[in-house]
Specification:
This protein is mainly alpha-helical. It has one domain (4-214): Up-down Bundle (Heme Oxygenase, Chain A). It is built from 13 helices and no strands.
Length: 215
C-alpha cells in the first residue's frame, strides 16, 4: 500500500503534467516572458500571495488536536511566508507599477476562484486539505519558477535583479524541508482526507494554469 504522500503524487501527477506541459507555460519557460506579460502575472500573484497566510490561519484554527503537528507546522510556515506579498509588490515597482496600482488591481476570475476555493477548503470539514494541498502544489512548480526566472530576467536587462526576487526565492525547496513535509504528510491515514487533498491539489493546479493562460 502506498504512503499518503506517494498516493497523493500518483493521483495528481496528471494535473502536474498538464500544468508543466501547457503551451503557455512551456513558451514562458523556454523563452521567458516579455515585461508586459510578466507584469500581468505578478499582479495576479500578488493577490494569491496576499491571501496565503490568512488561508493558512483559517485552516490551522479549525484543526483538532489529532492534527496538532500539522497545525504547529502551519504556524511556523506562516512565519516563513510573512511579507512575501511585499516582495511581489517590490518586483512590480521595479518594472513600473506603483504600489497603489498593485493594491487597486482587480484580480482575474481564476484568481478569485482559486482564493475562494482555498478559503472554503480551510473552512471545510477537513481543513487539513489546505495544508497538504500547499505542500504538493507549491513544491511542484518550483523548478518551473527557476527556469522562468532565468529566462525572463534576461529580457529585463538592467531591471533583472530587482524584478525577480519573489519568483527567484520560490525556485527551490530545501531537501530537508521536503523530507519533513513528506514525513508529516505520511502521518495522515484517512481515505476521506486523501480524497479531499487530491481534489484541492487538482483545483489549485487548474486555476493557476488558467491564470497563466490568461495573461
Amino acid at each position: 500500500m502506498l504512503s499518503f504522500f506517494a498516493e497523493l503524487v500518483t493521483r495528481t501527477d496528471e494535473d502536474r503534467r498538464a500544468f508543466e506541459t501547457n503551451p503557455v507555460v512551456v513558451d514562458a519557460v523556454a523563452r521567458g516572458m516579455p515585461v508586459e506579460r510578466y507584469r500581468a502575472l505578478l499582479l495576479e500573484l500578488y493577490h494569491v500571495v496576499w491571501h496565503f497566510n490568512p488561508v493558512c490561519a483559517a485552516a490551522a484554527s479549525r484543526m483538532g488536536d489529532e492534527h496538532m503537528a500539522v497545525r504547529h507546522f502551519l504556524y511556523e510556515h506562516m512565519q516563513e511566508e510573512s511579507g512575501h506579498e511585499v516582495w511581489v509588490m517590490n518586483d512590480l515597482e521595479a518594472i513600473g507599477v506603483a504600489a497603489d496600482a498593485v493594491r487597486q488591481h482587480a484580480p482575474a476570475a481564476h484568481t478569485l476562484a482559486l482564493n475562494g476555493y482555498n478559503y472554503w477548503a480551510a473552512d471545510a470539514a477537513t481543513p487539513v486539505r489546505h495544508w497538504a494541498c500547499c505542500t504538493r502544489w507549491r513544491s511542484s512548480p518550483r523548478s518551473t519558477a527557476g527556469r522562468l526566472r532565468r529566462r525572463s530576467a534576461n529580457r529585463f536587462c538592467s531591471k533583472a535583479n530587482a524584478a525577480v526576487s519573489f519568483i527567484g526565492s520560490h525556485a527551490s525547496l530545501d531537501a530537508q524541508h521536503m523530507a519533513d513535509l513528506r514525513r508529516l504528510m505520511n502521518q495522515l491515514n484517512s481515505a476521506g482526507t486523501l480524497a479531499a487533498v487530491v481534489e484541492s491539489v487538482r483545483v489549485n493546479f487548474h486555476h493557476f494554469t488558467r491564470i497563466i493562460e490568461a495573461i
